[in-house]
Design a protein that fits this description.
The complex is a heterodimer. Chain A is mostly helical. Chain A is 82% helix and 0% strand. The radius of gyration of chain A is 23 Å and the shape is elongated. Chain B is 81% helix and 0% strand. In chain B, helix 3 packs antiparallel against helix 8, helix 8 runs parallel beside helix 9 and helix 9 packs antiparallel against helix 10. Classes of the chains: A mainly alpha, B mainly alpha.
Chain lengths: 258, 252
């Protein structure tokens, strides 16, 4: 997908004509709008948010909230996924509970998180952690199931203990799939963090967007919106490239379907 | 084989009951204050009372209604537009990169824009649900059209099919698995955005219900609402999975 964007001029035509069309429209209809802004105004708005520190501060808050929540979700999800993936009984015992809990939409926990932690980073961590916990749990479990049985037999023959079996055989063998889980969860964590900020938490890019809208500054609003889009796109792009680099030699099809 | 499945179900229920029991113990010993974690019994009581006497039922229906409406609208738009883009390799080359760039954009980030266009009302929520739920199905449809067996394309040319005929005789049937996969994802997104929209606009619905419950420290009502939202997600997931199997039965 990114290759299409960088290799062909044709992909650029549509966005460019939208920008030029919008600019021309505002040039011939010079109205002061509360909802839309000319691209040139948006660029000026972007520069403004950069100069007054809004962009840096809100980006830091969102990324920090997303990253810390992601870390908690990853640690808990991978740990539970390993237990479920290793032990048949744990798998069966948890199956119903997982099926019941997983469909709870992360945003439904925003009010609960607000009640428990109040405004601030902690409520954001909690919701992001809940959302990212599930992909790690599921994908870790699947990754462990797909490990070559012979590898496990070898480790048993060599008399490995449970911990060296996990850390020396299983996790390295499952690494490509775990990385895919990470890539998906990174995107998810950003989406959820921004959503929490828009819905409740007065900090970060989501709140910045709401403030720009409420103070009738569409130029700043669209500047932040485009920035959020770029951020999500760039994170995904970096992780896809990294995935290709790290695991190309092991699973040739893996990076291609990204 | 059959005995194994019975054992699976028994163990699954046992695990769930154990979880409930732990929840019960935690609240009984007050390890976590009751304001934040009500007992399971209190939650069930609140759920029952809300459904029978309170307005939990109309709120649930309102949220489901919003979700389904937005999802259906988004699916229609996505399949129609996706077919038009997907059927032509030229359109794909021009439009798809932009779509791929827009897709990772958090759909909720569009909410401020939607508020400034529609205001804080239910059409804003519906607009956001549609915007967010369109992407998975749209990209699924395009993908399905782009991967039609080349020989079928040749056959359609030999038969001198018009573009419309190609779309509904070859393209769409071929894209059905991708479209269904997209629609399943879309439904999840639709539920999430319906709730976010309600949290912000105080329209009738479960999102508003749980927010009010949290604001007035009625933890049992809050958990009852979260439980219902989980149930909506669960039922809609299963419903679509079953529909999926039925519709795709001819493939296997």
């Amino acid at each position: 997908m990114t290759a299409a964007l960088t290799k062909s001029w044709r992909g650029w035509l549509l966005p460019f004509s939208v920008v030029i069309g919008a600019e021309a429209w505002f040039l011939f209809n010079p109205i002061l709008s509360d909802t839309l802004a000319a691209p040139s105004k948006i660029i000026r708005g972007a520069v403004e948010t950069m100069m007054d520190g809004t962009l840096l501060r809100t980006t830091y808050q969102t990324l920090f909230g997303a990253a810390a929540g992601l870390f908690i979700g990853m640690a808990a999800g991978t740990a539970c996924g390993i237990v479920i993936g290793l032990f048949w009984t744990a798998d069966r015992l948890s199956s119903w509970s997982v099926e019941m809990l997983r469909p709870i939409p992360s945003v439904a926990l925003i009010p609960l998180s607000l009640l428990t932690f109040g405004y601030g980073y902690r409520m954001e961590y909690a919701v992001v952690a809940w959302a990212t916990f599930w992909p790690f749990l599921i994908l870790t479990q699947h990754a462990l199931k797909q490990i070559d049985v012979r590898l496990l037999e070898v480790s048993r023959l060599m008399g490995f203990g449970i911990f060296s079996r996990i850390f020396k055989i299983m996790l390295p063998a499952a690494a490509p799939r775990l990385f895919t889980a990470l890539r998906l969860a990174v995107g998810l964590s950003l989406v959820v963090a921004v959503t929490v900020e828009i819905a409740a938490n007065p900090q970060g890019l989501g709140y910045g967007l709401m403030v720009a809208q409420e103070s009738l500054r569409p130029d700043r609003m669209f500047a932040l919106l485009i920035w959020v889009g770029l951020l999500g796109w760039a994170l995904n792009y970096i992780l896809v490239r990294l995935e290709g680099r790290l695991f190309a030699h092991r699973a040739p099809g893996l990076a291609a379907d990204a | 084989m059959k005995r194994f499945r019975v054992l699976d179900i028994v163990l699954g229920i046992l695990g769930l009951l154990t979880l409930l029991w732990i929840w019960h113990l935690v609240t009984m010993l007050e390890l976590i204050p009751r304001v934040f974690l009500p007992s399971p019994a209190a939650t069930i009581a609140a759920l029952e009372w809300g459904l029978v006497n309170g307005d939990l039922l109309p709120q649930t229906l309102a949220t489901i209604n919003r979700m389904i409406q937005g999802w259906l609208l988004a699916s229609l738009v996505a399949i129609a537009v996706g077919s038009l883009i997907g059927v032509s390799a030229i359109a794909r080359a021009y439009i798809q990169p932009t779509l791929e760039f827009l897709r990772p954009l958090p759909a909720s980030a569009i909410i401020p824009v939607a508020i400034s266009i529609f205001g804080l009302n239910s059409s804003m929520v519906l607009g956001v649900v549609v915007f967010g739920a369109v992407w998975p199905t749209l990209l699924g449809t395009i993908h399905g059209f782009a991967h039609v067996e080349p020989r079928l394309v040749e056959v359609s040319r030999l038969l001198q099919m018009s573009r419309w005929e190609f779309i509904y005789k070859i393209g769409l049937p071929n894209a059905v698995p991708d479209i269904l996969a997209g629609m399943r994802l879309s439904l999840t997104v639709a539920l999430i955005l319906a709730v976010v929209g309600e949290l912000l606009t105080a329209q009738e619905g479960l999102g508003t219900a749980v927010l009010h419950a949290a604001r007035s420290y009625r933890a049992a009502d809050l958990y009852a609402g979260i439980l219902l939202l989980g149930l909506i997600g669960l039922v809609s997931n299963y419903g679509l999975a079953i529909a999926d199997k039925r519709i795709l039965a001819w493939k296997n």
